[in-house]
Each structure stands twice: as C-alpha cells, then as structure tokens.
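Standup notes
- HV: blocked on the assembly model, inputs below
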Amino acid sequence: MKEFLGFVKKEFIHIFRDSRTLVVLFGLPVAQILIFGFVIQNEIQDVRIAIHDKSKDPVTFDITNKLLSSGFFRLEKYLTSEKETETIFKTGRVREVIVFDDDFAETLKREGTAGIQLLADASDPNSARMIVSYTQAIIATYLKELNRDHQLPLIIEPRVRMMYNADLKSAFMFVPGTMALVLTLVSAMMTCITIVREKETGTMEALLVSPLRPVQIIAGKVTPYILLSCINAVVILILGYFIFQLPIRGSLLLLFGETILFISLALSLGIMISTMSKTQVVAMFFSAFVLLLPTLLLSGFIFPIENMPKVLQWLCYAMPPKYFITILRSVMLKGTGIAEVWRETLVLTGMLVFFISVSAVRFKVRLQ
Amino acid sequence: MNQRKTIISVNNLVKKFGGFVANDNLTFDVHEGEIFGFLGANGAGKTTAIRILCGLSYPTSGKILVSGFDVYTQREEIKRNIGYMSQKFSLYEDLNIRENIRFYGGIYGMSSSAIRRKTDELIEELDLSDIAGTLIRDIPLGWRQKVAFSVAVFHEPKIVFLDEPTGGVDPLTRRQFWEHIYRAAARGITVFITTHYMDEAEYCERVSIMAEGRIEALDSPENLKNNYGVKTMDEVFLKIARK
Amino acid sequence: MRTILYIIQKEFKQVFRNKTMLPMIFVLPFVQLLILVNAATMDMKNIDMIVVDMDLSTSSRSLIEKFSHSPFFTLLKTTFSVDEAENRMLENETDMILVIPAGFEHELYGQGATSLQIQVDAINGMTAGLINGYATQIINGYTLELLSETGRNALINLIPKNITVNHSFWYNSELEFKHYMVPGILTILLTIIGMFLASLNLVREKEMGTIEQINVTPIRKYQFIIGKLVPFWIIAMFELAFGLGIGKLLFNIPVEGSLLLLFAYAALYLVAVLGMGLLISTLSQTQQQAQFLNFFVLVTFVMMSGIFTPAESMPHWAQDLNTINPLAYFMRVIRMILLKGSEFRDVAGDFLAIAIMAVVLTALATWRYRKIA
C-alpha cells in the first residue's frame, strides 16, 4: 500500500509539473462550455439579406421595416436586377433575397393580393428553412395587422408549453453534452496516452518488475485523472449554473454518483484502448476517431438520435456518452430520480464491467 | 605532439542551469586526429559539455572554437564538420540499416550515388549484409551501436563526438566497437568520446577526468598513472573521485 | 532541396511501414464519413407523442388522426391522465404531449374559438422549435379543412388583403442535409489527419531522441519543417480526393464549381493546418502535451467554424475570432465551391486570408523549432 501511495504521488507530480497539460486540462472544459453556450446559437439573428424591391412603395417599405426591425435580419444590399441574386449568393454575403413584385401596393389594393418571393441560399438547408419560415411569420403578422378587423370564424389556439426549458436556451442542450465530451477526453484519452507512453518509452517494463502489482500500476496511473475529472465535472456544473442559469433540479448526490460512474467507465475505456495500442500515435488516433467524433455526433449531443437511420441508432446504443447525456439531462434538467434512469445506469455499469474485464484479459495476455 | 594542430579549443567554458553549475570553468584543447577521452562519473557534466561542443546547447560563458568555428555564432558551420552519436539511441527504429544511412547521408547533402557506394562498402566492412534490410528495432543493441557509429562518421566529418557509445554491451562487442573507432581515427577523424568504463580510457591518447563539473586531470593515460603512482586508470579515477 | 526530399522519403517509409497506422489514416476516416454524415441529420422524422384526449369527440378524434397520419409524428398512446403522460416525458419516452381539454368541440363550434395544450420536451431547444412548428402546421391545416367542410370557407374571401409568399430554395431545393454535411465532415477528417500526423510526428522525434541526431547536422530549419510538412500534405490531399469521391458516389453531393479551384484552396489550407500542427509540436515536449493541445485547438476551431450552426448567428466576438480560424474559411469555401459553384472572384478574399495564415503559421513553426536548447 505504501509503495502504491508513493506511485500515485509520482503520477500527480508528473501531471502538476507539466504546466502546458494542466492549462489545457482545465482550460478545455471552460473554453468548451463558453463556446457551446455562447457561440453555438441555433437562433436566427442578424442574418444578412438582400432586398429586391421592384415596387418601392409605402407597403413594401413597411414590410421591409418590419423585417429589419425584428432583429433577425440585417440588410446587406438593395438589389436592382434579378441577375444580382446569383452573384450575391455565390459570394456568400447574403442568405436570403426578398423580392417584392411590381406595383405591390397598387395590386394589393386593387386585387386584394400581391406577391413576394423568398429566395433562400439552401446550401445550408437547416438555416434556409428557418430563415424562410421566420420571414413568412413576419409577413403573416404584418398581414394579420392589415386585416385586424376580419377574423377567421374557427380558431384553434395551441397553447404551447416548452417543458424544462421555457426559453429554449441552447445551453440546456450543450452543457450536459460538453460534460460528457470533456470527461471522455480527459479520462479516457489522457489515461490511455499515459499508459501507452510508459509502454513506448519502455518504463512500463521497469514498473512491471517492481513490487507493484499490475493492477496497482494501472490504478496508480488512473487515480490522478479521476480527481482531475471530478474537478472538471464540478467546474462545468458551476459554470453552467452561474453563467447559463442551468438549473440542477434533481438530487446532487445522484448526479455525482452517476458522474463518478461515467468517469470510471471512461477510464476503463481508456485502459482498454491502451492495451490495444503500441504507440501513442495509434492511441491518439484511436481516441480521436473512436472517442471524439462519436461523442460529438452519435450521442444525441448535437443531433437527436431518433432522426438517424436505424442502423446508426443501434450504433448509438453502444456509445457510453449517450446514456450519460440522457442521465444528465434527466437528473439536472427534469429533476428525475434513480427510478427513471435506472436502465441507463445499469447499461453504464454493464459497460464498465465489460471494459474492465477485457482490459484485464488483454493485460494478462500481454504479460505472458 | 605539441606541433599537432588544435581542432577544439575550450577556454573557461561555464554552463549553468539556474543555480546549478554543470560545467565549471572548463579549459582544454583537443588535437587534430587524436582520440580524446572525456571521463567522469554520471552527472559530472560530460554530456552537457559535449552538447555545447556540438551546437545543441548554449554555453553560459567561455570561448569555444570547434574546428575553428565559434559555438555562439557559427553553429551550422560546426555541424558541417562533425558527427555525433548520442547516449540516447538515435537511429530510426522503424527504418532498416540502409534506410537510416541513406537518410542521414541525404541530410548531410551527400549525393545519391556516393551514399549508395559508401553504404555498400560499409555493409561489407561491418559484415552486415545479412541484416542490412532488417528494421533497427529487430537487431541487437551491439549491432545498433556499430551502425549508429558508422552513421555518425558516414559523411567523413573532421570530428566525431561519441557520448557513452558503448553503454550496456558486453566487453567483446565493446572491443569490436573500439576497432571501428581506431579505423576512423586512422582516416584522420578526431574522436571525442565520453565514457565511464575505465578500461576504455586506456585506449585514448589523452583523457580528461571530470568531477562535479570541473576537469580534475588531463593527460595521457600513461602519465596519469605515473603521476598518481598507480597501475590502472580505475585507481586513478578512484583517487580523483575521493579527493 | 535534396535534403528535403530525403526527409520526405523517410517519412513516407515510416508511415507506410506502420501497419496499425495505415488503416487509421486510410480506412477509419472514410468509415467515419459514412457514419457521421448519416448521423448528422436534423430532419425530424420520428416525433413520439402521447395524446391526452379528454373530449373524446368527433373533432378531437379527427385532429388526432391528422397527427397520426403525419409522417413526422408517431402516436405512442392515448390516455386520460396528464400525470401519466408527463411521467412518460420524464422518462424520455415521449417528445410531445397533446392535451385536448373536455369541451373542445363544444367551444369550437359554439364560440368559434377554442384551445388545446401542447407540451414539448424542450431540453433540445432546436428540435423543440421544429416540433412546435410541425404541430402548429397540422392544427392550422385542420382548421382550414374544417372551414371548407362546414361551408364557411366563403368567409375566407371576406378577408380583404392577402399576400402570397412563394419561396424557393436555391442550390439545394430538396433541402438535403447530407449535401451540407459531407463537405463539413470531410473538412474535419482532413484536418485531424493532417494536423495530428504532422504534429505527433515531430514530437515523437523529440521524445525518441532522434531529433538530436538531426539537430547536429547542418540541416536548415526551413528544410526540416518543409520536409515534415510535405508528406502529410500529400496524404491529406489524397484523403480529400478520396473523400470527395465517396461523397459523390454514395451521397451524390453536387459538384457545381471547379474542382481545381477547390484543390488549390485545399492546398493552401493544408499548409496552414499542418503549419499549425507543427507549431504545436514545437511548443510541446511530449506527444501527450501535443495531443492535448491538438484536441483543444481542433474542438474549438471545429465548433466555431460553423459546421453545425451558421457562423453568422454567432456573437460578434466569435465571428471576429473566426478571422483567424482556418477551419472556418475552409468550411465555407468548400461548401461554396461544391454546392454553389462559386468562382475564384467570389472567394478571392478567402484565398488571401488562408495564404497569409499558411505563411504565418509555417514561419512561426520554423521560427519556434529550435536546433539548440
């Protein structure tokens, strides 16, 4: 036990003496949270548009005003010909061109109807869709005002309640995801690399002949990262709470319990990868492709799993972060207890056992 | 002896790492074509000095000329005239012998045909034809060191610096290694070698013995033994170390 | 020049000799491309919903039918208990709850106006917005249908003014999200390969000690950096070509613009990215440090580049930061050239910017690379 503690101490010294790694280790979560919270906006705002107003009358000015004062759009340019649309789209300066028909006000008065064309740059299809529907909504509101005195005789008014996240803040979505991402990176990648590093530089052999048992060596390598990961998790929660007003509605104890479960899982995954890699480069590429991208894309972090093709949905079920993110969202944001997340917890525990057993087997094989 | 040309001249070399003085006022000359031994216990400052002479590290102060060039301002000129074999094994493990030679020959600017010709000669001379295509990681340490040495002198430098070149190999292999050193010296290459094997010191023309960053003695092995009134270099070393 | 060739030759030998790395470089990225492009989709197809119908009238039933016939919604169950439905939402089993209150039909025909409740799981604000949009659309459609059925649609004509809004989606009329994601994911893969390989390679030489042997040779710093840059540049260019081929064959991405222009841009972009990787490696002592810096830089740059969300809707400080983010440029340019057919004059500014970055980053890497400690 004394040797073991000495060994752990040595590992701590290694990490704390390496200021560059430390900066990244703690800078990473903070930067990620801020980026996701502030930078990743799904809301439409300040979208640059161009207007081709063939009529230039009070009504088109009115509508233009409504559009521009909405805060969603910013006028980049008035176009004077159809041809300009193509050119301005190709430079990527605007994402939508609004075309008012000739004699707009006149026609509207005389015939009761007038036309507007919305041309959207759909090379980014999602934003195109959103931009068009925002524009339509603004025009519809304008129209409603215009027809104030006339109402449809049958109205069903949907009263929408946005549950758990009334303001539709993106932080609600990203903070749990970032937590999963950071913990995966710090725990799995860093442990994996530390262990492979000892293998590559040959110091692992020296450790293996020491009185320390292999389990102790691995445990010793891993312990500092458990601590670092826990600190990171707390930092993320604090940032989420104070900067993004992210509530913690469920039990804090349960939250920590699940976090520690996930950290252990990530560490065991890191150990497993390390038993499969000979060099650090291999370990890193493995981490990048097996940990980073799937955590971003196959965990429901950014893209909802239920929209994916069936095969990929099955693949998602094999991704530990998926379960952790679900648990985090449920416990933090919905305030659920273990009764609602026991299945996810069970799956994570099962994975933990699996990774540890595989590592143990592979480690033994290597020793023989 | 004295009429031989000086090829390395070191005057008052000091190297400090923070408060720690690794090289304390070293002054010595190395003559052209000699085998100069740089002896000392681990941590005596040998590697620090050799790295400065090779232009891998800045001295804190002192005037140092290697092959007539100043280590402060003419490092790249120095590098054209030296070869270096470091203590840390430095061939590419995932390349074979030929490929390693070719690579280093190439970055010294040798022509492709010269590299090929000399490689063949060398492989013949070292009797390596069986393993010329084997990756370095798969050949024994003793062989690797011979290859590393050959790589260090492949471009026919004026001086070759060898930092603990024979660490960890058996006496027989060391003996063979020294034959290669002699052969290089016979071609006129000055050999600057650090070691802590005292039997190897006997092979040098002159040795300097370092302790705690200072040069405690510098002379031919013969004179040193006479001066200290002992029979072997081992005893010389122990006497100096106990001082 | 010959010196550089020797380094390049050596690097290639090492890369191709490493049996574990080869699949990592040449197979894994494309598997990733296949998977991730399919994973990254915003098309809502399976919105699970629970209906609490307390009215049990003809109207409520036909409205529910509208939902269950919609391709977007999957009706999990109908129940009478709001509590039960909400519990299902807590357990993440349903995305939306539709509550039709008692008296729904009565109010609708009696007073001409009624209401119902929609509860959306809004933790993912983006999908919540979409769900809301789809639901409202169905309800509005239903109202219009009712109007025409009940013969009251003549009333619509009473509305004096109408503006018809037509829209057309340029460059991607089907709104095929994959066309947008293929270039994005490809950019990430390309960047990972190039930047990681280059930076890890150099740090590895430091860690293994082989760099010492190079540092005692008269090699020039720029020769060394170029020698380290070119092999991975070639590999990454190859990956781009291969990835585009896959994108064309499997995802049928449009190639509207000039491929030559795209490759010219990629050539500069990769120099910048590799320069950055090498700079990182000159700043690191160990592969671990380098890798962590790589990840940090990569994740930050990727997220800010506008791969998932349009860069314009980012706050201004973030957009300012993007002026030094090579990924943001490439992400935009590859999409412009492929999807819109933008020409050189449309992206001239981006060319200038990336060229400056390429020069500055490689110069910095060269400057930071020390042959002496």
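- HV (later): unblocked. The mean pLDDT of chain C is 88. The first strand of chain C starts at residue 47 and ends at 53.
- Next: hand off to the docking folks.
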